[in-house]
């Protein structure tokens, strides 16, 4: 079974997309799964169990097929934790998995039969691609302009009958239509990856150009690596006392805190219990250094938490970090009525005096949740308005093999620790706005 779950990271334009599980790990014990068909309304997917193997089928009203891309592998078993999930249990009529990124349970319930269209290969015409994309967006509660949808369908139908165009020309034209549909959805998580075109597009209009953002990121990483700051968890965390007297904690990302050997390479594991233990060990070291800083300064320092380049990752890691910094009797966040309260030692709350958080338009997802949780715990936000992408993302395939991602939950189901709706699509407005040249300095 070692070949079932594969490393599925695609690097394009400097961006790393975890499209499915990076590694497979043994489940606590192999579950006995009854043969049959199971349905998840959360994922809009079927699982067909047959003699210990499970096959995942992506479903929309017009198409159903065993698609390659998804948060679960296309084929897996109960002997291994599948993709970015771990097994919780299996009964006669129910299968339960837990997402490693946020701890949210995923339920599959028994259905009488697999729909007949699932046995057929998908139709890969331009019209089918646009129809499937529109259906996926509707399934996950994203509205589209019906007038524009009629136009996109008409243009897709014309592409299907234009025989004077090359396949590449048709793909380029279809890619532009898909981009327009995703932009109209106004989903800050939405992306499309067309591998044969070498093209990736994410919906999010940045005020700062990609070249300046990337150059600023690289210069910042170089400064960190040349500094006397400590680092841990695969250089995801950097900490130490600054000459200004503030105590710096840079959180570069909230995933890939550990790595495993695969062949001749070390491969980062996106989400795992080992990553949470690594964060715990790093915070223990940070606590010891904070005590030394207090002795040196004669008082506890204030914290400077840097999330400017953090595009998110694990909500469990974000919750663990926030509740270590300031454990309060309120949840970290709530997603679709599932409260997130991941708390572990150490308690750092007595080792510093207040602080501020640096954020930018790059700051997204779990990093935005972290910023808001810290704001509710007395920190102030400085920088730019964040991306406004609080919802977890679902990954789907289009019939022609392109990969899309969209947010899973409606904005009203995304709440902060006080039970207030998070500004999905709008972002967190900082307490102090800073110019882009300060947030993304380039030298």
UniProtKB/TrEMBL annotation:
<feature type="signal peptide">
    <location>
        <begin position="1"/>
        <end position="27"/>
    </location>
</feature>
<dbReference type="Pfam" id="PF03572">
    <property type="entry name" value="Peptidase_S41"/>
</dbReference>
<dbReference type="InterPro" id="IPR005151">
    <property type="entry name" value="Tail-specific_protease"/>
</dbReference>
<dbReference type="InterPro" id="IPR029045">
    <property type="entry name" value="ClpP/crotonase-like_dom_sf"/>
</dbReference>
<keyword id="KW-0732">Signal</keyword>
<feature type="domain" description="Tail specific protease">
    <location>
        <begin position="244"/>
        <end position="435"/>
    </location>
</feature>
<protein>
    <submittedName>
        <fullName>S41 family peptidase</fullName>
    </submittedName>
</protein>
